[in-house]
Amino acid sequence: MLKNYIKIAFRNLWKKKGYSALNIFGLAIGITCASLILLWVEDEMSFDTIVTDQELVYSVPTNQKYDGQVRTFFQATPGPLAAALKTEIPEITKAARLRNRDFLFTVNSSSISSAGSYADPDIFDLFDLKFIEGNATDAFKMKESIVITKEVAQILFENPTNILGKVIRINQQDNFQITGVVENLPVNTTYSFNWLVPFENFTYDKPWTQEYGSNFTETFVKLSPDADFNSVNEKVKHILPAKTGDEDTKAILHKAADWHLRSDFKDGEVVGGRVEYVRLFSFIALIILVIACINFMNLATARSEKRANEVGVRKTLGSDKQQLIFQFITEALMTAIFAAVLSVLVLILIIPAFNALIDKQLALGLTIPSHLLSLLAITLTCGIFAGLYPAFYLSSFKPIDVLKGNRIQSKGAGFIRKGLVITQFVISIVFIISTLLVYQQVQHVKNRDLGLDKDNLIEIPANGDLIKNRKAIAEGLKNTGMITGLGLSNSNILSAGNNGSGLRWQGGSSTEDILVSYRYINEEYFKTAGIELIEGRGFSPVVVNDSSHVIITESFAQLMGTGSALGKTIDRYGDMYTVIGVTNDYLYGDMYGTSDPVMFYNYPPEAQYMYLKTNPKYATTEVLRSIESTLKEYNPGYPFEYRFVDDAFDARFKSEQLIGNLSRIFALLAILISCLGLFGLSAYTAEQRRKEIGVRKVLGSTVAGIVGLLSRDFIVLVLVALLIAVPLAWYLMYSWLQGFAYRISINMWVFVFAGFVAIGIALLTVSFQAVKAAIANPVKSLRTE
Amino acid sequence: MIKITDLEKYYATEEVRTIALNKLSFQVQEGEFVAVMGPSGCGKSTLLNILGLLDDPDGGSFIFNGIEVAGFNERKRADLRKHNIGFVFQSFNLIDELTVFENVELPLIYTGVKPAERKKRVDEVLEKMQIMHRRKHFPQQLSGGQQQRVAVARAVVNNPKLILADEPTGNLDSSNGNEVMDLLTELNEAGTTIIMVTHSEHDAKYSHRIIRMLDGQKVTENILSEYKSKTLEV
């Protein structure tokens, strides 16, 4: 029996090639989309698998209260916290600190720059690092020891085996001995590093790291398996206030399983994060599959007349309803299987492009059981879901009706078909509107007045002798005419961090507790970064002249009360500073929010970054070559590393860009699938109404009149869809935009535009068939009726 | 074999109720060949549909092989139908996507006959209908007469007790039509009961008895040849 079904299904598919192609193509797009999204979701869910005990390992962010608001900070725990947690809370069995750093490694004559961390030995256990050489117990026994990943070993050594005891020169000054080689960390790791050195290499010359006053490191802990999370978390919360007497800063636990997907905090609690995008896109995958299935249903029921006779004959010959349902579902399944095969081919072709678009390394592995099973599940679900309604509909025909040649006219089926078309277009229009608004929002923020000039600005890590030789470098580069400014700062220009509170100032109330960012800069920083001095003067090239002077941003000046802030004094833990200048506010940290006030000091030795303003008259490659040769001269041994600040700025919008890109693709595909469906439906309608069209033409109707007649019904459906989609899209996008402090307001023209696009596309699709029917010779259609 | 008494069937649209069968009664004995005639709309096809268990009467009694089948649900009707009744239609109603062999095989599949047995029986019947050489062709590749022979083959492959033929020669030229009528006569002589709806006086003459209908009622009945020893009564 099954053989018979498959045979007839295959012959049906073959006989109606156009119809089958529409169905297979539509379903294939749906399956491809869903597969891409599932691959992305799988990737997002596969983060931090390096931590085996996901429920036992936690990072320790801090909740800090400023101006009545609790804000959560990562990499912001004091040095002694890790040890205190381990000794004072019995349920905590391991604790380790981690602080990132870039090192220049030199072995023999070759050098590489590599990102890694200062770490405590418990980190080996917390992150389940697999030692290829050496072991966790002995790795950090001496201070100048280093554990590297296999990858670093392969880069540094021609023969990367048996390298324990070999020496790596770091930053051209210290020799570290390799005490361990570990397996590479997976790409999907939140806290990633290429090497680890004992933490005391960071702290030994910094007494402030031994105290509770400064928050500068990430802390990780592991709980014993029987520990009660809530009670441990309470204990953790109490530990900092107990040490510092400051009730406004509390450490909390953030579980490993949440690091990647749930890392957005509000009022000190996890509120979500990327998981929302994972959910959103999973839902979109489902929606795209649904509209692809709708096509199948619509086309199958629309051409039911063609199949009715067969149903009648089969029933007359003894088939019962179940057998027919089974037969039609078999046909739908076969279509779905063909679609799946096509989709796999398409996936293989487009995954590289998709990877480029979303900046991931996804791969379809048909030998991976989870991928194969998912594909199978999608295919079967699609086949059954798409086949179910047509199967029930077709199998319910009464043989006497169809065999007598009575027209199968079911009002119910027509109604459902219209409903399905409306559903498809509602989804398509919502996609169009969302795409437009996401794009607008990203552009809106990107075009925001940042208060600084990110163009033609190059950022270079200020390592080695760069700071010492800054004046010579500046002079050398300016002489070429390619560089107009050299700025230095202790902090990345676009990032938050390096901040503190507890400042007091003249006229300020003592209860005010504002988080202020500290920037240690040189005299050319403002000019280089395009930050404007709106009052007072800038820093002197002679650092000591400004040792007790600061420059502040406008928002800070406003906090200090009315009147000019110039000459007022600020008390930072007993050190008094006089304000000599005020700059405009500029944006850093959260690109959608407002930035904290900034206090600038004239102290270049603290700088971590050098900024060079390039002259746009010169070609970028030429400028870079010139910078490289100058830096090589004054800072030999270090590779030339740089990035453009405007690229870094763009990278801040990765999530939004991703959403934008994906929603654009899905909008296109949703419309494409819907149009395939509409195309098929209009073809059948035109065919069904051939006689009517013939009669109308004989009676004098014009081609335009007929096209209008045939198109009108479909356009009405699209209009209904528009009415439903507009409020829906408005609500969805309004909710999405609420997540951004700096956001667009939704403009009516977006809806009007989307409406025109939808109607335009629908009209194009339908009119193709309508025109074909309208210009056909009426004699032919009347004769064949 | 068949006894219908006061059979009624209505068709109702929103405004009009049409009576298709109006208290129709007659009997058909096993092995008989009966022709039903009458103008278009007299209820012939409705009658055939009810006799073929494709439709349910609105009133009256229908006894098939001693069982009252009026009021049977679709499943029961389908079951009874597939084991006892074969159909021959004016428009052949072959499935275009299946070959001659597969079309004829279909009723056997639905009655659960094993593949080896199916092949044997289909081959036999195709041989008998002299279309064995066309077994791998699709219906569109055959002439009308050949298609109707396939349809007859399909109707008899299950050895039904009753064949219902709805204008079996309506779409055929006279020589092909005669062939089909000869085929039906042969089947009848071999013991199969046949009820045939027709417009053709010529075809009707092949039967033992002609029932003429008008407006859903029987008007006359002509006995053309005595059928064995059984008495015909109305």
UniProtKB/TrEMBL annotation, chain A:
InterPro entries reported in the protein's UniProt record: ABC3_permease_C, MacB_PCD, Macrolide_Exporter_MacB
Superkingdom of origin organism: Bacteria
Chief location of this protein within or outside the cell: membrane
Keywords, ordered alphabetically: Cell membrane, Membrane, Transmembrane, Transmembrane helix
GO cellular component entries: plasma membrane
Protein topology in the membrane: Multi-pass membrane protein
Stretches assigned to the MacB-like periplasmic core domain: 20-238, 426-628
Family affiliation: Belongs to the ABC-4 integral membrane protein family.
Cell location: Cell membrane
Protein name: Putative permease
Domain ABC3 transporter permease C-terminal, first and last residues per copy: 283-397, 665-777
Membrane-crossing segments per the record: 21-41, 277-297, 324-351, 371-394, 415-439, 665-686, 714-734, 746-771
Recorded GO MF terms: transmembrane transporter activity
Organism: Leeuwenhoekiella polynyae
UniProt cross-references to Pfam families, sorted A to Z: FtsX (PF02687), MacB_PCD (PF12704)
UniProtKB/TrEMBL annotation, chain B:
Entry GO CC: membrane protein complex
Domain (ABC transporter): residue spans on this chain: 2-232
Pfam families xrefs: ABC_tran (PF00005)
Record-annotated membrane-spanning stretches: none
Keywords: ATP-binding, Nucleotide-binding, Translocase, Transport
Taxonomic superkingdom: Bacteria
MF terms (GO), sorted A to Z: ATP binding; ATP hydrolysis activity; transmembrane transporter activity
Family statement: Belongs to the ABC transporter superfamily. Macrolide exporter (TC 3.A.1.122) family.
Listed name of the protein: Putative ABC transport system ATP-binding protein
